[in-house]
Amino acid sequence: xxxxxxxxxxxxxxxxxxxxxxxxxxxxxxxxxxxxxxxxxxxxxxxxxxxxxxxxxxxxxxxxxxxxxxxxxxxxxxxxxxxxxxxxxxxxxxxxxxxxxxxxxxxxxxxxxxxxxxxxxxxxxxxxxxxxxxxxxxxxxxxxxxxxxxxxxxxxxxxxxxxxxxxxxxxxxxxxxxxxxxxxxxxxxxxxxxxxxxxxxxxxxxxxxxxxxxxxxxxxxxxxxxxxxxxxxxxxxxxxxxxxxxxxxxxxxxxxxxxxxxxxxxxxxxxxxxxxxxxxxxxxxxxxxxxxxxxxxxxxxxxxxxxxxxxxxxxxxxxxxxxxxxxxxxxxxxxxxxxxxxxxxxxxxxxxxxxxxxxxxxxxxxxxxxxxxxxxxxxxxxxxxxxxxxxxxxxxxxxxxxxxxxxxxxxxxxxxxxxxxxxxxxxxxxxxxxxxxxxxxxxxxxxxxxxxxxxxxxxxxxxxxxxxxxxxxxxxxx
Length: 478
Hints:
alpha+beta; Immunoglobulin-like; 5-stranded antiparallel beta sheet; 3-stranded antiparallel beta sheet
């Protein structure tokens, strides 16, 4: 018994010594030829005497990061030599450095692609003190975000929020729906009356606003309550300005008439736009104008009618023949009084005759209803999003033509995953989609794709509904 215990103790101690005495395996060795290529590429980036050589080095680092037939994927995320070479380029922004702006932006992108942002944090923050360097910082952050699907440095992101880089931060949020960035976008786009910009962001709060905005498209907008007009005889134009009283219009339609009875559409402008210039008009002809808003639900009421006529000005009076002036007696020279400065503004209606109405800048137009339907989220964070599905179901039930087909396609792309795991509410809405398409009776390849997905994924008890639709569509869209 003692011998057995002794043997066990010896074996146990041996095992313990073996377990804890193992050395950490050495890091994998890099092929000398590959290491030479890495070193040579960085040396070329450091060669600021020739921008073509620098661009070649940047391209070679990208190839090394991508891997090839004769070398593995190279990780530069801890390579201080590459970091220092890029930082040197980024800091060479002064005139006479010989570094082109194109090379600086490419180097900034490489900094992000190589995941060196954290190691270059101090440099980027130093550059942020100069607003002209914002494009460099944005190029770095976007390259990192696209490659890693994460945000690299929240301090830099907050700096861009402070600078109100709205469009750039929207692009980031589409890739990575960070809470802080999305909350900033919600506040700004709602304040700008552009909630449609929040469509497509994979974030619950943005999706909720998008659904609310989308559903307003099923209610006709309110129309303008004012319409002012001012003409320019010299330019043969009139300027129209109206008020925007609705929050859900897709655009404004401008109509024109010669008799205030027969009207013709002359232009449609985007949502939130409140002015238009009508050109190539004829003098001494009365023109009548009216404006209305529209969306998917239909038109609003008309604005008040505004009218104007570009009256030909009377000819100038005849000038009598010149009479030779009498020669005045000589007057001793006097010091002339100081000249008054010319007026800074020309009063309205005088001068060159151009319009004096202040025209606000036109914001970007709202995308069409069909496009917004295609952007509607039916999944949020990989989970079915019931309000989004219900919003598109409303389009299938009430819409027509391409709008309805677009929603069918969006639902088909979003609903054909993990249907066995859906809640009863999601399953119920999905079946309503099928029945709505059946009632509508349209035969469209998008509809068939949806029914094919449902036929494949839904439980057997729903097969009768799918089979019926399949019989209707299968012959044309196999």
